[in-house]
Design a protein that fits this description.
single chain; alpha/beta; Nucleotidyltransferase, domain 5; 48% helix; globular
Length: 285
């Protein structure tokens, strides 16, 4: 078996492994298969692409933490059955975000999920709390969040990045167990699971669906232009805003509707002729 790097970090009772080779596949499968509850988090970049680019998948088991390098390991199909197993509960903080990343990158649709952020909102009857605040509440531990916006696509990882990544899943299962006891007293267990499932449902959808809901009052033409932009951005894997911004949607639709459009007007929004040609073709101008 490929030699795994063991990382021994202060404050972590679990063994932490950095997995960067497909040769460690059986090691990963063996650990996850034997767990009924696992914690999950992801590190990704979503600044210059249509789809988020998954860098690291963190999985917390009962006594181990796996940091799976999703850039170094090209074939991660073996994770699908493990993470979609309905008998396995997956604990996440902010389920919509991580399920979106797993769905778009690995075609994994997680459904049996418990969102500690959603649960904490029910318990505290307050606004949603970030992971660090929830950890602080239950364990009196202040997490170092300095690596939140670091470059997760760069290799090799720094020790600070790996420590941060492990921390992000280190407490998830224990938080779930503490929250579950409180939720039972409040008779809110079922509600917490239902709300968590809703969040994962949204994450498992195509990206354009939630975006389209934001312009539900738009005209038929505006929605048609919006969908062209989504599909073109998806094809080129660029952010839709790189084509034109949401606030410019009405301007583009208005120009087409008036049928007095000029090429110079559209060139303000479409930076290259190929994009403009595709737009004219699809919108039937």
């Amino acid at each position: 078996m490929h030699l795994k790097k063991f990382l021994n970090f202060f404050l972590k009772k679990k063994e932490v492994y950095l997995i960067q080779s497909y040769l460690d596949k059986e090691f990963v499968i063996d650990i996850i298969s034997n767990e009924n509850i696992i914690g999950i988090d992801t590190e990704f970049d979503w600044r210059n692409t249509y789809f988020p680019k998954l860098s690291l998948l963190q999985i917390s088991a009962s006594n181990k933490i796996l940091l799976i390098d999703c850039i170094k390991i090209k074939d991660l199909k073996f994770l699908k059955n493990l993470l979609e197993d309905k008998k396995k509960l997956i604990v996440i903080h902010s389920a919509r975000s991580d399920t979106t990343v797993l769905n778009t990158n690995l075609k994994i649709k997680i459904k049996n999920v418990f969102d500690v952020q959603i649960a904490e909102k029910l318990i505290s009857k307050s606004e949603i709390l970030n992971y660090g605040k929830i950890v602080k509440k239950y364990f009196s531990v202040s997490l170092n969040k300095s690596e939140t916006k670091s470059n997760w696509l760069k290799r090799p990882f720094t020790e600070d990045q790996l420590s941060y990544a492990a921390d992000d899943v280190n407490f998830l299962i224990e938080i779930y167990k503490k929250q579950l006891k409180i939720l039972k007293k409040l008779r809110l267990v079922e509600r917490a699971f239902q709300d968590s499932e809703k969040e994962s449902f949204f994450g498992n959808q195509d990206l354009y669906i939630s975006r389209l809901k934001k312009i539900k009052k738009a005209s038929k033409l505006e929605k048609k232009i919006f969908m062209w932009r989504e599909k073109y951005a998806e094809k080129k894997n660029i952010p839709p805003s790189k084509i034109f911004k949401d606030k410019e949607l009405k301007l583009v639709a208005k120009e087409i509707k008036n049928k007095k459009y000029k090429d110079d007007f559209f060139k303000k929004f479409f930076k290259d002729s190929t994009t403009l040609k595709d737009f004219f073709s699809e919108i039937k101008i």
